[in-house]
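hey can u check if this looks right to u? its 346 residues, i copy pasted from the old doc so theres a chance i mangled smth
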Amino acid sequence: MKEEERIETEDRELFEHFRIEVDPGQKPLRIDKFLVNRLENASRSKIQSAADADNILVNDNAVKSNYKVKPKDSISIVMAYPPREIELISEDIPVNIVYEDDQFVIVNKESGMVVHPSYGHYNGTLVNAMMHHLKDLPLFNSGEMRPGLVHRIDKNTTGLLVIAKTELALNRLAKQFFEKTSERKYTAIVWGTFEEKEGTITGHIGRNIKNRKIMQVFPDGDQGKHAVTHYKVLEELGYVTVVECQLETGRTHQIRAHFQHIGHPLFNDPEYGGNQILKGTTFTKYKQFVLNCFSILPRQALHAKTLGVKHPESGEFMRFNSEIPNDMTEVMERWRRYLSGRESNQ
């Protein structure tokens, strides 16, 4: 084996991409046996599930698990995340399920819920809730760190997530996110107005040099990972704007970091400066109005509104939409009334 490279994938997508160049002296060997000896924490059954989902490519062609590896083969494999590092606790936590069949679940996550356990958040997460809801399924007793998860959204972001119920569905959904054939649209309230009603934000995203808990944009591309966000203005509300964001990539905090980078932080986003009064007048009455809006919406104004995926079994494209949550709609209505009152006084 000449080269084995673990490719870093999108932070928000919970899978790994490996690329292996087979040594010229390699003897013929089933690819599932070959890979189980090369990939850390990869069982033969997981490799076989990846092959069943056409997630193993040899020289750019999908192969099954009985394929015999040959010298100089170029192998690419998309795998689900490694086994769990901590004990997962099943918890009976209410979850808003908007769709469910025998292959996957679509959940509308509320604000304040962490998606999966991590340091400092070992319980009360969406995964803990799904461990209870799907406790009889093999995937949720398999020892996975994040069973069924293909992607995630931030703790205080609301909206739609897909959770796989079988190993095959997990692999097929992961492939869609990796190949960027899934559809993800967000609604956000951001500070300021836009000259162009539609646009695209590009810029590599990586950990902030001074604060590792947040991300920053590196426009020259020397650091971070390639990231693309498309946006469209939905409504102008004076000093703030409602936008639709469509993700082409899925980096950590991508929308939040990208809009800060172009001078339009998300409304009341504490990590990216949106919790300051960035636009408007100096009048005390206006200041109080914005602070009241902050109290109504005590989080970044971001909602994962639309999620589209191909059904893992039938291949049918399915699109799911969710209502914008009450805290965002109330703030939008208050800005409408403020704007109307300001115009009537002119």
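The chain has three domains: 3-80, 97-179, 184-344.
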